[in-house]
Structures are given as C-alpha cells and as structure tokens.
Amino acid sequence: MALFDKANCQAAILAINILGWLLTMVCMGQANWRVWYMESSPKPPWGLAYVGMWKVCTYQPDSPQTRPIACHRYTYRDTYLPMDIRISQNFLLASSLLGLLGKWLMVMGLRRVYAGQLQKDTTCNLFLVSRILSIVAGSFIFIAVLCNYYTVKNEEGIHFPPSFHIPFRPERQDIGSAVYLAIVAGFLMLLSGLFTISFQLPPKSQMNPQVSQV
User: Fold this and answer.
1) Cβ atoms of 148 and 84 closer than 8 Å
2) Mean pLDDT: which of 17-21, 62-66, 113-117, 191-195 is highest?
3) How many domains does the chain contain in total?
4) Torsion 73-76-77-83 (CA) sign
5) Which domain holds residue 114?
6) How far is 130 from 109, CA to CA, in rounded Å?
7) Can you give the pLDDT at residue 123?
8) DSSP 103-146
C-alpha cells in the first residue's frame, strides 16, 4: 500500500476515533445510566429516577420523557456516592483525556505525512502512541460499563440525601440508554486503535530520490 493511501486510511480511522470520543462525552453527561422505578414511594411525584455518573434526575412516573422534576449534580465532596460511581467517573474522565491526546498525536502524524516531513522514528511513534491511547481509552469506557452493569444486576442502592426524596434502593432498576451509547463509544475507540495502520516508511533514498544528472 502506497504511503499516501495509508495516510488516507489513517484519516478515515481518525474520523471513527473522533466519533467515539464525541459519544463518550455525550454519554458522560447523561443521567440515564440506571433507571430506578419507585412505584410504591410515599411521595407520588418521585416515581422514577435516572441515576447517572454525574447527576441524578427524578421524573413523574407517567411521563418519563418530559422535563425532569429535579436534577442534582454530584461533586467530589459528596460522601454518599458509592465506590462504583467514583471509579466510573475517574475511568470516563481518563478515557476522554486519553482519547483527546490520542487524536492530537494522530493529527500530528498525518500532518507530517501529507507535508512530506517524514522522520521514521518520530512519525511512526506518533501513530503507535495514538493507537495505544485509543485502546486504553476504549478499555476504560468498558470498565465503567461493567461497573454499572454489576451494580444494576445486584440491585445495589445509594444513600442519597433526604432532600432528594429518593429511597436507598428502588423496587426495581434497569440499565439506561446511556450505557448502550457508552458501549458504542468504547467499541469505536477500540476499533480505531486496533485497526490503526502501522506505518512503515520507505528507505530514506526512496523518500528523497536523487535526480540523475545527464
């Protein structure tokens, strides 16, 4: 495969990586990682809650798609947050930062190829490090997904403050749509890392051919 053909394939992989990173940012901000159903709650308005990584929102039980009744954002000073949410927060933050750094390195590598500034060690290392960062970022997303799945499966509760009007444990809970979005984001990050083309630059004599004199 010609050098510029490899660069074009790398650009397409970069687009996949950017899409995965954007989906990661979107799912981080959503609250519906866990859906709590509280049918027998003593306070009728609080029949449904969406528990996210950075906030929890309560909804009326008969209209979950309407505007939330109340949303409460978390901070690192909140002692009521369970360990699984804290771990997932850190992994998602690390994933977004590593993904951003990986994209920057990939762009720098492509810039060198298209500009003809080919240095074998530097250019190849840029793509290699970008590939590793994308794989690590995707793995971190899946760790957060697994932590969330484990807590839902085991129906674990959260000691929210009394002012939230949310019980420690609901009658039942399900996985929210943000989890599926995170799975797609993690898959795209891993895909872009695993299928990153390993650049093997041609010998220096071929990159800078000498013009024969007549």
Assistant:
1) yes
2) 17-21
3) 1
4) positive
5) 3-31+79-199
6) 9
7) 64
8) HHHHHHHHHHHHHT---HHHHHHHHHHHHHHHHHHHHHHHHHHH
